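FAQ
Q: What does a multi-component entry look like?
A: The components come first, one per line:
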Amino acid sequence: MGLRRIDAIAPSNRGLNYGDGVFETMRVHRGALPLWSRHLARLREGTDRLGIALPDVAFVEARIAAVIHGVDAGVLKLLLTRGDGGRGYAPPAEAPPVWMLALHPLPASTPAGLRLHACDTRLAAQPALAGIKHCNRLEQVLARAEAERAGCDEGLMCDAEGRVVSATSANLLVHRDGRWLTPPLERCGVAGVLRGWLLEHGLAETRDLSMSEVESADALALCNAVRGILPVSTLGARAWSPHSAITDLQARLAMAYPMFSESVEAA
Amino acid sequence: MGLRRIDAIAPSNRGLNYGDGVFETMRVHRGALPLWSRHLARLREGTDRLGIALPDVAFVEARIAAVIHGVDAGVLKLLLTRGDGGRGYAPPAEAPPVWMLALHPLPASTPAGLRLHACDTRLAAQPALAGIKHCNRLEQVLARAEAERAGCDEGLMCDAEGRVVSATSANLLVHRDGRWLTPPLERCGVAGVLRGWLLEHGLAETRDLSMSEVESADALALCNAVRGILPVSTLGARAWSPHSAITDLQARLAMAYPMFSESVEAA
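Then the predicted structure of the entire assembly, as C-alpha cells:
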C-alpha cells in the first residue's frame, strides 16, 4: 500500500462521515511514549475488529518519534480513519487508511480530588464495539455535557441495566474491602491502557458494580493513560477524604512510570 | 453567530474525532429537494437532542439552491458537525457548527429486487440517539461489510433482543395480512423521511417484528429518501415474487413525488 502525505482531510473521509476510525491519546514523557506498546496493542485490536487496515507500524513510529522529539511532557493523539469514500456505509475495498498525529500540551493538574457527576446518559451494550477506542463517541459527548452543566470535572456512566461502567474519558477504580475493583467492559466502555496495566499486575480486579456499591466505597479513583490515577472527592452528595489506598496505588504506578509521579505529589 | 467559509476540515473537527454531527442524504429533482421540509425537521430534531447549534436555515437553503441549480437528478448530502475543538469530549461552549454540502450522482437503479442478508451485527439500544441521523455509524459500517461479503445488496439488522429494526441505509416494510408494517424506532435505528411520510398517510403502521415474522411476510420492501420503495427479492434462503402491494405503494408515492416514478417502472 503506497503512502501519501495529505494536506487536508477530504470531505469524504469516513471518520468525518461515520466516525469510522480509532484513536489513541498518549502521554509524552521526555521525547518518548512510555505506554506505546499498550496503545499499539489496543489500536491493533480496534483495526482488526473494525476491518481497518493498520498503517505500516515502523513508519508510524518514525513519524511519532519525529513529532515528539525534544518534547518533555505533552499529549499525543493518533487518529486513524478507514480512509475516504466507499459506497455509503460499505467500506471501500482498497482505500488506504488516513491517519494523523496531533501534539497537545499536558492538561493542567486538577485539585486534590475530582468531582464526579452521575450521568443520565447510558452506555448502550454493543459487544462488537466494546473495549476498543473507536470514534463513535456521542454517548461520551452527551454525558460530558451533563457533567459540565452540573459543574463537575467528570461524568460517571452506567449501562442500561444500571451497572456502573466508567467515566467519560477514564476508567473507574472502586476500593471496597481492601481491594481495588473495576467494572468489566465486555458490553460497553473503553478498555483503558492503565486499567490494563493495573489488572495485569494484580493491583485491581474486575467486578460488576452497582451505583450504591460505588457510593458506599471506601475510596474512588479514575485512571487514564494521560493523567494516571486521580482521586475522586465527590459523587453527587457523597464525599470522600484522601485515602492511603489511592496514594499507595499512585506510588506503585510511579515506580513503573515516573511520569505519573507528579500526580502523587499533587495528591 | 458569524459565518465563515472554510477551505478544509480542521484536524480538530468533532465530526472527524467523535462522529459528533448529523447528516441528511437527499434526492435532488429538477433543481429542487422535494422532501426538504422533512429532512430539515429531522435535522432540527438531531441538533436539538445533541445540543448542536443549527446554522441559519435561510442561509443553508440559499447555499443548497445554488448547489442544485440546474441539476436534473442527483443526491445532495448535508453534513453538519458540532465544529472544532473543545476539551476532549466536552462540547465547546461557543464554537460555530461546521457544515458542508456534497452533490453526488443518483445511484444506478437496482435490478427487479434486492437481495438482503441477515446481519450478525446488532443495533444497540440507545434511546438518546435513536431516530436521528447522527454520525456514529460503525454498526451500519460493520453490518454493510457483512452484506457485501455475503454478496448481497443490503443488510437487515436486529436489536440485541432479536427484533428486526431496519436495513443499514433504509427502513423496512413488511407486508402481512394485507397491511404494511414497519418496526418502531424508539430504541435504535434511523427514522427515515419516507417511512415518516408512509406512516403519516396511513400507508404503513409500526409493529415489533421478529425475524420469523419477516421471513414469513407476503412481501418485503425497503424505503429511503433517495431511492424510494424498493422490492426485496431474497432474504437468505427465502425468495419473494413481485407483489402488487409493492407496486401499489410505489404508485401512491409516485403520485405525491413523481421523482420516484422511475422505480415503479423498474419494478
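Q: Is there any commentary attached?
A: Sometimes. For this entry: Chain A touches chain B through 52 residues (CB under 8 Å).
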